[in-house]
Design goal:
7-stranded mixed sheet; binds zinc ion; Rossmann fold; 302 residues; alpha/beta
């Protein structure tokens, strides 16, 4: 895998002061596979050097996988989590349904990091008429259902690609950690929303119980994650990007047992054995909901 690393300033407040090093990099390139930049992978527990900004408190990677080499890695990443993406889309649809009373119209919606388009199916169910998903990886798009494939763009999100369009809802699930410049994305989203329109993100919460319990052994410390948010820092990012009425709430994710096993703090070989067992027979479709340390942030464009 052809990755390059670059140092960076704080992606939230721009501070160039050297923050407190929370954990050093432990990346071994030879152990990375085509799943390293895939969604819902078996974690390798490899991460960049993570520092805490001494101005705004954001935890971010520096040096981190450069924007260009990261993008190439996402383009080529494998995809094997279609079942899990259906479960995640249902969780997010429930979350959104509660928020839709706050928007005036359900005309146009955009999902950034749409994966295999599972959430686009939910947006259809929720009554949106003009739906677009953008996704940089080719493999999940190839797995999308025919009736949503024509809503998907195989690309990264750029506001200029949507010039002249105004959205009522923009969603961005499990993406903000992966971006070199998450503030730029939030400002760009703001620029394409209708006044009163909603931006909804789901990210990991660095201060959630599971993350505090496991510390840097948590799977959220990952080569894909260029920053990790807390309620305070996601709120600050959205405020700086022009949003108002920001609400942050925990998310109970519902996934099959075999996916939860991927995240369990167990030795890799034992874990692989348990996952293989859980993927077979009636157990394969048994799911449960857990507060696995995700949070949703819902913000409104004034
Ligand atoms: Zn900062």
């Amino acid at each position: 895998m052809n990755l390059t690393w670059e140092s960076r300033s704080c992606p939230l407040c721009g501070s160039t002061a050297e923050g407190k090093v929370i954990v050093e990099s432990n990346v071994e390139l030879s152990r990375l596979t085509e799943f390293a930049f895939a969604s819902r992978k078996l974690p390798e527990y490899m991460h960049s050097r993570m520092v805490e900004c001494n101005v705004c408190g954001l935890l971010y990677g520096t040096p981190a996988v450069s924007s260009d080499s990261g993008l190439n890695a996402y383009r080529d990443a494998a995809f094997d989590s279609g079942q899990e993406s259906q479960f995640a889309a249902q969780t997010y649809a429930k979350l959104i349904a509660d928020q839709l009373n706050f928007i005036g119209s359900r005309e146009r919606a955009l999902d950034i990091g749409a994966g295999d388009g599972a959430f686009l199916e939910q947006l259809v169910q929720l009554g949106f008429r003009d739906i677009t998903g953008v996704e940089p990886s080719a493999a999940p798009i190839a797995c999308s259902k025919p009736h949503v494939r024509n809503m998907m763009r195989h690309d990264i999100f750029r506001a200029r690609d949507f010039e002249g369009q105004r959205f009522d809802l923009v969603t961005c699930f499990q993406v903000m950690e992966h971006l070199w410049n998450p503030g730029e994305l939030a400002r760009d989203v703001n620029s394409i929303l209708n006044p009163g329109g909603l931006f909804v993100t789901v990210t990991h919460n660095l201060r959630a119980f599971s993350a505090r319990l496991l510390g840097d052994k948590s799977p959220i410390f990952d080569i894909e994650h260029l920053q990790l948010f807390s309620e305070k820092t996601i709120r600050a990012l959205l405020q700086r990007s022009g949003f108002t009425d920001i609400r942050v709430m925990p998310v109970w994710n519902r996934y099959p047992i075999h996916y939860w096993m991927k995240l369990a703090p167990l030795p890799q070989n034992l874990k692989k054995g348990l996952i293989a067992v859980a993927r077979q027979g009636p157990l394969a479709s048994v799911a449960c909901s857990l507060p696995a340390g995700n949070m949703a942030a819902v913000a409104r464009k004034p």
